[in-house]
Specification:
The structure is a single chain. This protein is α+β, with helices and mostly antiparallel strands and about 500 residues long. It contains 15 helices and 11 strands. A 5-stranded antiparallel β-sheet has the order 1-11-10-8-9, with no helix packed on it. Strands 2-3 form a two-stranded antiparallel sheet. It has a two-stranded antiparallel sheet with strand order 4-5. Helix 10 (about 265-285) packs across helix 11 (about 305-320) and helix 14 packs antiparallel against helix 15. It starts with a strand and ends with a strand.
Length: about 500
């Protein structure tokens, strides 16, 4: 049986994705990430609550904001498992729901509230807190849960916290061109980077999600104040430079690049600054020791800083609109740190595993001194490295599959057949993800690949059942070539050949 096939709508992999694919194609971090996330949960999570001890088996009732980067590790694993291990994904989703229901261990008076039903009243209390930055970090986690689960209620709560509590603390400059937020909700508390950077990012993400103009206005005015009054000219977001604010303000700039309605010159400034702040974290001697991210301190705040930088650095690597060389550079820094951290991780008592504050060395302290923040930073590094590599490989594989499928077309007169609709639908869905990779999560790449593979096979099966057009090879004039361009003769084996300038499938 012969099926005529011609080339339609060819797609070519970008230089960037080829470069990144060649960098990570022979690496595999997913098994390591699975074991490390499990160890993080087993060593530090209070499983009945979904939140985390501040140290090994040591509860702290004021460990609130740290719960945001901690649950982010679980969320990232959940995203990765959704199309791989649905049982594990369901287990982790339950922890995420418990985290939400228990208000992320919020120690303020708001923790007494019992309602988890979204509403829009100003008196609604669930994640309200004395510290503005605490609310900002937890709001970012709520937005992440909404993105990962596709459940709108989490994003609604995030929006309410921002509208009713965070932005209502805002102070405007005299000319109203900029906004600053106090670190604490009390007189005399001024702005700082750990409040302004996440608040800018929240506003930009809310605009991206809801399209409400006020959020873009907030984002730009928060950015303006931070850029003029807090950020330093050499790439430091604050003094001293700390990895979490370097990463967060870089992410805010990256999102602003995508959503702003300003001129191309301003857009490109956001794009440039996103790299400047991320790159500073990985290359400045103020943030590194011998090329590795440094030990930033041992308390519950300091030890968790790197857990916030890493996901945003990975987001930069995966953003198709960022500069290829810069993406490759950051990818290399991440892999370097990941390999060193894993090499020096003591796994002899697994699942009891503790990560050190400095990834160049194994943790040798007492169990009771092991910090959740340090383990969270290491787990975030491994989990997000796995996410990065999986996304790059899946992005490349989806592009390769799309290219193969683009060569397929049916015999004239059958293009409108209903049996081919699933194939066209899967192709359109794959193209949407290929064209907008930053908006999609790793499990969606996998689903697109699975759906397109199945639809392609079904389309081929249907197509080969269409009655023959050519009764024999004599119907096509000219020589016969294989797909390598070599001329062939004699009895043809099964495969695709070029006959008379067209592809012919011989079964």
């Amino acid at each position: 049986m012969f099926l005529i096939m011609t080339v339609v709508g060819m797609y070519a992999q970008s230089t960037a994705i080829k470069t990144l694919y060649n960098t990570v194609k022979n690496t595999s971090y997913e098994t390591n990430a699975d074991s490390m996330t499990n160890a993080f949960i087993e060593s530090f999570m209070i499983k009945s609550k979904g939140y985390f001890n501040i140290k090994y088996q040591q509860y702290a009732d004021n460990a609130y904001w740290q719960q945001a980067p901690a649950i982010d590790v679980v969320i990232y694993n959940y995203q990765r498992q959704k199309n791989i291990n649905r049982t594990l994904a369901s287990k982790y989703l339950n922890y995420i729901k418990l985290w939400y229901q228990n208000k992320a261990n919020n120690y303020s008076g708001a923790a007494a509230a019992t309602s988890t039903t979204p509403n829009t009243t100003n008196g609604y209390k669930m994640f309200e807190n004395h510290f503005t930055d605490d609310m900002c970090w937890v709001t970012l986690a709520l937005l992440h849960i909404g993105e990962a689960t596709g459940t709108s209620s989490y994003s609604i709560i995030a929006r309410q916290v921002f509208d009713n509590y965070i932005i209502k603390r805002a102070h405007y400059t005299e000319d109203s061109t900029a906004i600053w937020l106090p670190w604490k909700n009390e007189s005399g508390s001024g702005p700082n980077a750990c409040t302004m950077a996440p608040a800018t990012l929240i506003a930009a993400k809310l605009y991206k999600k809801y399209g409400t103009e006020k959020y873009l206005t907030y984002a730009k005015k928060l950015y303006t104040y931070t850029a003029k009054n807090i950020v330093k000219s050499d790439g430091r977001v604050e003094e001293p430079p700390l990895t979490y604010t370097q990463g967060t303000f870089a992410e805010a700039c990256r999102i602003l690049y995508h959503v702003t309605d300003e001129s191309n010159s301003i857009k490109n400034k956001y794009k440039s600054l996103a790299y400047t702040y991320i790159n500073y974290a990985f290359t400045s001697e103020r943030c590194t020791s011998n090329g590795f991210l440094r030990d930033e301190g041992h308390d519950g705040n300091q030890s968790i800083f790197k857990a916030i930088l890493i996901p945003y650095a990975v987001n930069y690597v995966l953003d198709e609109e960022m500069t290829t060389t810069n993406r490759k550079n950051i990818c290399g820094y991440i892999l370097k740190n990941t390999n060193k951290m894993w090499q020096n991780l003591d796994r002899s008592r697994y699942p009891l595993v503790f990560c050190n504050y400095d990834w160049r060395y194994a943790y040798t302290g007492a169990d009771s001194d092991a910090a959740m923040g340090a383990m969270c930073s290491g787990s975030s590094l491994m989990e997000n490295t796995a996410r990065m590599c999986r996304a790059i490989v899946d992005r490349y594989n989806l592009g390769a599959l799309y290219t193969e499928c683009s060569k397929f077309t049916i015999e004239p007169g059958h293009e409108e057949d209903a049996e081919l609709t699933p194939f066209y639908t899967a192709m359109a869905a794959a193209k949407e993800i290929i064209d907008n990779p930053d908006d999609y999560m790793t499990y969606q790449f996998l689903k697109a690949i699975e759906d397109l593979q199945a639809a392609y096979q079904a389309a081929q099966d249907y197509a080969t059942a269409i009655p023959d057009v050519h009764k024999d090879l004599k119907d096509s004039d000219g020589a016969i070539y294989n797909l390598s361009g070599q001329k062939v003769s004699g009895k043809l084996q099964k495969g695709i050949y070029i006959i008379g300038g067209r592809k012919v499938l011989i079964k």
